[in-house]
């Protein structure tokens, strides 16, 4: 009974804080995915460009940020970014330590990691586009910009949805590592609640259940998006797929 009161929404309950922390986890993950999408698209374009320098730079990015532990990247972004901001502040006459905001540092770090995976997702999706579609678009007089807007982007997004769903789940779990920066996301709040009440099993199980709820809902959303994209695809393209 006392355990249920601790998880309640009253003055002594942690329920509202855990729900807020879950929403914070979603916010930081969505921001990270958006950052990663921009970086991933740029890196995928570099790797598909055929330019040896751009290809090499793209390969370095994806190799480094998929190979280095996520926690190390978060530490480098958070503490390295804080040191850089402090140095800039001192150059402008401000004395004292300037820390990088936890949300910004966490979203940027997870976004950089996500970008390395999204680059490969976008690259694979582009290579999955039927060459006949691109040739037909050129044959009917579509210029490069129109071909990119009407053929390449819709098809890449359609093929990328399953991979992006996996990247989202990965980023959602990586967001737990941001707790080291002090951001009150789900993992951090679960740790604080467990330490304050000495109910470690209760609050870590509660946090794990909330993560499962978030991942299950995410699966349903991405599966629905994939079905919708395939339903709206022309019959000829379905045959090619």
Automatic annotation (TrEMBL):
Membrane-protein topology: Multi-pass membrane protein
Bilayer-spanning residue ranges: 12-44, 64-85, 97-117, 200-222
Alphabetic keyword roster: Cell inner membrane, Cell membrane, Membrane, Transmembrane, Transmembrane helix, Transport
Organism: Rhizobium croatiense
Pfam families linked to this entry: BPD_transp_1 (PF00528)
Name this protein carries in UniProt: ABC transporter permease subunit
Principal location class: membrane
Family listed: Belongs to the binding-protein-dependent transport system permease family. HisMQ subfamily.
Organism superkingdom: Bacteria
Subcellular location(s) per record: Cell inner membrane; Cell membrane
InterPro entries for this protein: AA_ABC_transptr_permease_3TM, ABC_transp_permease_HisMQ, MetI-like, MetI-like_sf
Domain ABC transmembrane type-1: 18-222
């Amino acid at each position: 009974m006392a355990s249920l009161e601790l998880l309640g929404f009253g003055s002594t309950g942690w329920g509202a804080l855990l729900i807020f922390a879950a929403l914070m986890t979603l916010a930081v993950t969505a921001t990270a995915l958006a950052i990663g999408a921009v970086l991933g698209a740029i890196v995928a374009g570099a790797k598909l460009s055929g330019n040896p320098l751009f290809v090499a730079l793209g390969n370095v990015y994806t190799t480094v940020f998929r190979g280095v532990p996520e926690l190390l990247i978060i530490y480098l972004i958070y503490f390295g970014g804080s040191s850089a901001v402090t140095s800039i502040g001192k150059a402008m006459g401000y004395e004292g330590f300037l820390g990088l905001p936890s949300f910004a540092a966490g979203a940027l770090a997870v976004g950089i990691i996500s970008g390395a995976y999204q680059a490969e997702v976008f690259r694979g999706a582009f290579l999955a586009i039927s060459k006949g579609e691109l040739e037909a678009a050129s044959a009917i007089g579509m210029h490069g910009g129109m071909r990119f807007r009407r053929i390449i982007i819709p098809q890449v997004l359609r093929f990328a949805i399953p991979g992006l769903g996996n990247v989202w789940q990965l980023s959602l779990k990586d967001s737990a590592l941001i707790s080291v920066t002090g951001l009150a996301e789900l993992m951090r709040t679960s740790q604080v609640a467990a330490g304050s009440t000495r109910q470690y099993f209760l609050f870590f199980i509660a946090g794990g259940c909330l993560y499962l709820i978030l991942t299950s809902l995410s699966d349903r959303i991405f599966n629905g998006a994939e079905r919708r994209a395939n339903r709206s695809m022309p019959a000829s393209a379905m045959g090619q797929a």
